[in-house]
Amino acid sequence: MSEKYGYLLVNMLDMIKSYLTILVFIFVSMNVLAEQEHKMPPSNTIGICLSGGGALGFSHIGVLQALEDNGIKPAYISGSSMGAIIGLLYAQGISPKEMMKVIPKEKMNRFSSIWKFPSSILGFSSMITVHELLSKYVPHNRFDHLQIPLFVCVTNLYSGEWEIKSTGDRLIDYVCASAAIPSVFEAQIIDSMHYVDGGVLNNLPVEPLLDKCDVIIGVDVLEYPRKKELKKASDVVLYSILAANAETHRVRKPYCNYYISCNGASTYSIFDFHAFKELYEIGYQRTVEYIQAHPEMLLHR
């Protein structure tokens, strides 16, 4: 009997050892998997939202160059007004360095070259020159032919709402509409609808990026200058527009994982197209400084 119990005892001890070995193996495996999961880099689906701002939008080129220099490139682009124009060129595959060559070549640094008297009373200037210029560099005129998906924000004057355009073969038309500053440029008529600058109602259109991107980078070039004294009627008009824009950005900023504000760009006017080099540098430097302050951005490369 003692031998029998001894045999059973040995078997039980062997079984216990086996179970303990299995448990230890499971425990170690779970810890290894947990560590691997913890060390996994964040998802790299990056979207960038470029605000409007007239000539100040040249700062976007510097922002894009700085991001590229740090290995950060968006999978999606959204933009209003000048942000839509710069976004279009970048989505087409035109690099920031190439854009800086295109600007003087095509006289984009001269507002007088862009200004053309319209054939209607819907604005002081038509968008013919801008349309011809963009068509030259984006001849296919189709959203689905771009290297990077692009979302263009426009303001529909009939509905009184902002809209996002991202499909079809009216790409250039919608980008021009997005940049049609009311009164300055004539409203764009597309499919019997009148459209103007997307920045009127949504100058930071992050919405189309929310369900497509894990990381959203917002770029604001239209800083609100807190001037103490308003001396002219035009100052009141300008600050009214900037105040509305500031509220738009305040509401949408929380949706951005990173928010680059091109502080300093506001020392220039939205019509200072001649200052494209200075504005580029502001965008570049502010982005470099932002990345240095937020090194976690580099994890998304």
Termini separation comes to: 71 Å
Low-confidence stretches: 19-41
CATH superfamily of the largest domain: Cytosolic phospholipase A2 catalytic domain
Whole-number count of domains: 2
Helix content: 40-55%
**Structural class determined from secondary elements:** alpha/beta
Number of strands: 8
What portion of the residues fall into strands of 2 or more residues?
5-15%
Q: Return the string of H and E elements.
A: HEHEHHHHEEHEEEHEH
CATH architecture of the largest domain: 3-Layer(aba) Sandwich
Overall shape: it is globular
- Kindly provide the name of the CATH class of the largest domain: Alpha Beta
Largest sheet: 8 strands, mixed
CATH topology of the largest domain: Cytosolic phospholipase A2 catalytic domain
Overall average residue pLDDT: 84
Describe the structure.
The structure is a single chain. This protein is of the alpha/beta class and 301 residues long. The chain has helices at 2-39, 59-69, 82-91, 96-105, 111-114, 128-137, 171-178, 233-252, 276-293; strands spanning 46-50, 76-80, 150-156, 161-165, 188-190, 193-197, 215-220, 258-261. Strand 7 (215-220), helix 8 and strand 8 (258-261) form a beta-alpha-beta unit. Helix 2 (59-69) packs antiparallel against helix 4 and helix 2 (59-69) packs across helix 9. The longest helix has 38 residues, at 2-39.
